[in-house]
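All the exercises in this workshop are built on plain-text protein records. A learned vocabulary of local backbone shapes supplies the integers on the structure line. Once this layout is familiar, the rest of the handout is easier to follow. An example says more than a description, so a record of this kind follows:
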Amino acid sequence: MGPAVGDSRPGLVSRPSGSIGVLGRAALLVCTCTVMGQGRAQAQTAEPADSLPAKGSSWALLPSVYYTPETRLAAGFALQGFFRLPGNSPTTRSSNILAALIYTQNKQVIALVRPRLYLQDRQYELSGSLEYFKYPDKFYGIGNDTPDSAEELYTTGTLRLYFEVLGRVRNDFYFGAHLEVIKQKLLETLPGGALAAGGVVGSAGGWAPALGFQAVWDSRDNINYPATGSYRRIDATTSQGVWGSDYSYNRFRIDARKFIPLARSHVLAVRGYAAVASGGAPFTQLPRLGGSNLMRGFFTGRYRDHALIAAQVEYRLPLVWRLGAVAFGSVGQVAPSVGLLGLDRFRFAGGGGLRFALVPSERVNIRMDLAMAGSSSGFYLALGEAF
């Protein structure tokens, strides 16, 4: 039912980090969202640094440009605001609101508003999004062995509301709940294709309100470019017909990342990711491989099914001046159930890229990655690291 949480498919816009005077005017020149998303949530987006005065706010209307295989060239505008709410100390992260309107070379329309609020010196964190997508996309069927010839184009119209609250339990441990409401309609399908035939769960569109809980452990020294620490998130979500959903399903995800400092500012970054969805989940909410954050080189959703497991490793090193480089590799697979995941079913992807330090003091990088995955490849131009 639309872009899944933490999915990179829409490409969108990340929340930049850095001083208002520097990054607030530059960070959105090249950007993606890891949502979704990307991004929020599983694929962490950049957040504003503690650079505002104790009182006051800063707002800027900025251009936004990025490139992914899913969108090709994308451009638009983003309104970014930073402010500190009463009751927070001057060192507390500034709250922020992002509003963006994007149009892509693939004729995708993306509109969103995303607030993130910090209360009582980060004792509580409120975040959410209101999003609309008109999104031409590709569907290859469900399973780990779907052929390239199964590709069919389709277009969705999606309205999505998301709200999340987190409360600090102890030190770096947070616990909270989230609400998600999605209304989706398939605007176009391939005549004679699987979606047009109506045999795929979710091809009829509809409503999918969902409730869930999440636990987060975050000890990273910097969320934009961690050099040490770890990040772990577990979330469980359910959508049921008894409260008006057109689909009844459960979804469970684990995201674990570790950052290991090596000599001379070199960093080894490791990520493991697993997801499971029950049989009633619409195809747009099934776990899927690919995209700018998980298994670069594969088109987002090239492989999707009810169970997914993936791992990726990335070696990051400085070069000269503000330039850096990375080399990365990943493995992953999908299956109808956890019990059918197997050692002989993994897909492989890898590549390398360059980094330009946009704001060195905040470790905010523009990344340019080229990845290979089987017979496919992908180029990514974005703000911030893949994970």
Observations:
- The mean pLDDT is 86.
- The first strand starts at residue 57 and ends at 68.
